[in-house]
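Consider the tokenized backbone below.
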């Protein structure tokens, strides 16, 4: 029935219901949304055509009476089905007019589609639940657009955040650069491409004196000092144009007018098109650096303490002066001076006072010199003066005497009155040599001839000194080679008991036996070895060899012997000396009681307390200690009682003339008597005849050593000697 067609009369109720139902059905099937009605048990009771189409079904009978699980299984996930069930329950509990929303993804034959549903309750007039209505639309395209929008939004957000981070970093960097610009110690100036100043930092003002207001718009050439020519600046700008940078040192002028050195670097700033837009100049004042460089250069050629020329500068100036003297025909005298015993000043008063003493010495000597003279400090306590254009030798002597006169006057330093002596050697150009190095060497040689004697204060070099110096050089080389070849060996001189006449020991004496059999006397090499600090090595070898020989002789049955050896000052000053002796004895299995050390009286007196401690350590272990050359040094009873010695050895100078010189006899008798009362044994050395032996026995001497019994013998000869003494009766009673 068409409701728009006019009819006469009234509609019946049934006709109206049918018409309305038809319209509802057509509306239900015509909407684009999926329309669903479920009963209170949530089973499908009505669906429209679009819903059937989405599910691919032909008739509502395929759905009516079924629930979500039955309809949607295989088309969506269990999770989505459960979510729909929960939404249905929520909708059934809502009042009329309210709804809930839910989404579901359904796998249609064509594609996966996302559907959005609104679910609401259907109730009668009494509010009883008749079912739930569901309107669903396909939101797949909307979801796709939303996802794309979300992706685009996220991408845009990241880009914005990145740009924001970049801006923040750039701003932070700008702030940092501004901080650096304002606080760096280097002066910075920024100009336009024409060189007109735009900006400077505070350090630039500090260095140049110019403020920004004073320099803005001006060219930095206002700082030019006129120290450099136009070519310098032309080359600077050519380099800057070619390379974009220039760096170097130059002299500029401060606002005050003062000229100062600076280190400058200029960099060109280009835009994106490569065109120069600005220049940046960074400079710093290097005045202090230049002063330090000058100071370093100065002290490379001068003594730090006295500011005098050092050896290198002195040699250079002396060479030039000698070349000039050779051309112009005048003489030059070289005075080489050494302060005697200067080490004692440092050791007793300290290095500070020692340094001040050297300064005062140099100041005094300067007052005696002409401007043309060359004065230098060559070493710790050594000075040199080159006296230029001397007229005669008297001029040199006068200067040497004046220097000596100034140095012997006392020096007052921090309350200490210090007296010194000096030794001076003098050589003359060209008489002695025309070589500057040789001239210094000759003066040094002459100085060492008198150093420490206190008998004369200066000496002129002679050719004989050159011969002696060369001999010294040759001897040094020979000693070193001799040590390497093992040419230093002990010879033994017997010590004979006055009571028994038997050999009770021997002294190991150093001998230098060369490859050709020639024997060098200790007098010829010991002093030089001490000067060269080689005496320690010689002493150690002699002691080691003597102990090794002692061990062999003990095995041969000579158990009664005690070997003795002299030690030098070097040994006593060596902290490892005691341990070295112990080690030598232990290595050769020789008892400490079989070894005796002989120490000269003068050596002990250099430091009685210290040396007493060393000897105490030796004697406590069992080693015997004796005083050698007794009577030639201090001969003080006060030091004798402090020392742990067991033997006194009377020097040969007293023994030689005891038969004819009453004074020598009295001294020998006094020593023997004193030793007996102190419980010490006495050894007399240098005994050469029977009368001396008899006298010494009569006076109570314990042991005799000398040529009367035996000269110093080699190892083999000494063994033969003691074997003979053992096999025969004593040679003399």
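A designed sequence for it:
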């Amino acid at each position: 029935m068409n409701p728009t067609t006019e009819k006469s009369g009234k509609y019946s109720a049934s006709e109206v219901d049918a018409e309305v139902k038809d319209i509802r059905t057509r509306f239900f099937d015509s909407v684009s949304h999926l329309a669903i009605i479920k009963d209170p048990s949530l089973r499908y009771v009505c669906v429209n055509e679009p819903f059937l189409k989405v599910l691919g079904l032909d008739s509502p009978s395929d759905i009516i009476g079924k629930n979500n699980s039955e309809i949607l299984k295989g088309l969506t996930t269990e999770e989505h089905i459960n979510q729909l069930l929960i939404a249905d329950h929520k909708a059934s509990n809502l009042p009329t007019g309210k709804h809930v929303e839910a989404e579901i993804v359904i796998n249609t034959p064509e594609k996966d589609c996302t559907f959005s549903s609104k679910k609401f309750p259907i109730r009668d007039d009494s509010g009883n639940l008749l079912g739930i209505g569901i309107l669903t639309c396909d939101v797949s395209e909307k979801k796709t657009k939303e996802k794309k929008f979300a992706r685009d939004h996220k991408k845009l957000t990241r880009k914005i955040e990145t740009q924001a981070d970049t801006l923040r970093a750039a701003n932070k960097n700008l702030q940092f650069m501004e901080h650096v610009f304002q606080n760096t110690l280097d002066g910075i100036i920024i100009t336009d491409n024409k060189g007109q100043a735009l900006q400077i930092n505070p350090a630039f003002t500090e260095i140049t004196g110019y403020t920004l207001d004073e320099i803005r718009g001006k060219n930095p050439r206002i700082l030019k000092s006129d120290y450099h020519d136009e070519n310098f600046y032309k080359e600077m700008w050519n380099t800057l144009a070619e390379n974009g940078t220039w760096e170097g040192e130059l002299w500029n002028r401060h606002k005050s007018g003062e000229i100062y050195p600076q280190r400058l670097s200029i960099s060109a700033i280009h835009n994106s098109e490569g065109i120069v837009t600005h220049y940046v100049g960074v400079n710093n004042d290097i005045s202090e650096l230049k002063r330090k460089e000058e100071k370093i250069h100065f002290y490379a050629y001068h003594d730090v303490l006295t500011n005098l020329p050092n050896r290198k500068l002195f040699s250079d100036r002396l060479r030039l002066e000698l070349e000039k003297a050779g051309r112009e025909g005048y003489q030059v005298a070289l005075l080489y001076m050494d302060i005697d015993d200067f080490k004692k000043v440092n050791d007793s008063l300290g290095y500070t006072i020692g340094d001040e003493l050297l300064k005062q010495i140099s100041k005094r000597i300067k007052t005696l010199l002409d401007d043309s003279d060359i004065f230098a400090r060559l070493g710790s306590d050594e000075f040199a003066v080159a006296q230029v254009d001397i007229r005669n030798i008297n001029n040199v002597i006068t200067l040497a005497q004046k220097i000596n006169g100034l140095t012997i006057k006392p020096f007052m330093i921090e309350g200490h009155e210090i007296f010194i002596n000096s030794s001076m050697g003098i050589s003359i150009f060209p008489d002695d040599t025309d070589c500057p190095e040789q001239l210094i060497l000759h003066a040094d040689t002459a100085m060492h001839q008198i150093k420490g004697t206190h008998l004369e204060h200066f000496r002129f070099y002679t050719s004989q000194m050159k011969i002696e110096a060369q001999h010294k050089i040759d001897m040094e080389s020979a000693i070193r080679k001799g040590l390497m070849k093992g040419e230093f060996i002990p010879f033994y001189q017997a010590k004979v008991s006055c009571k028994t006449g038997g050999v009770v020991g021997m002294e190991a004496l150093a001998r230098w036996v060369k490859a050709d059999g020639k024997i060098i006397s200790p007098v010829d090499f010991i002093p030089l070895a001490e000067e060269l600090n080689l005496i320690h090595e010689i002493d150690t070898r002699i002691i080691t060899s003597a102990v090794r020989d002692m061990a062999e002789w003990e095995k041969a049955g000579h158990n009664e012997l005690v070997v003795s050896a002299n030690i030098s000052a070097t040994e006593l000053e060596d902290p490892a000396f005691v341990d070295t002796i112990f080690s030598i004895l232990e290595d050769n299995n020789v008892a400490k009681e079989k070894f005796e050390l002989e120490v000269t009286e003068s050596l002990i007196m250099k430091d009685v307390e210290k040396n007493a401690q060393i000897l105490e350590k030796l004697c406590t272990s069992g080693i015997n200690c004796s005083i050698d050359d007794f009577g030639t040094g201090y001969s003080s009873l006060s030091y004798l009682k402090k020392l742990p010695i067991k033997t006194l050895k009377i020097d040969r100078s007293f023994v030689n003339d005891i038969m004819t010189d009453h004074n020598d006899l009295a001294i020998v008798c006094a020593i023997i008597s004193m030793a007996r009362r102190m419980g010490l044994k006495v050894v007399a050395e240098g005994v050469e005849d029977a009368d001396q032996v008899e006298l010494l026995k009569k006076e109570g001497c314990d042991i005799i050593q000398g040529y009367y019994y035996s000269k110093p013998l080699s190892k083999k000869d000494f063994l033969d000697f003691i074997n003979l003494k053992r096999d025969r009766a004593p040679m003399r009673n």
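Residues 529 and 535 are 5 Å apart (CA to CA).
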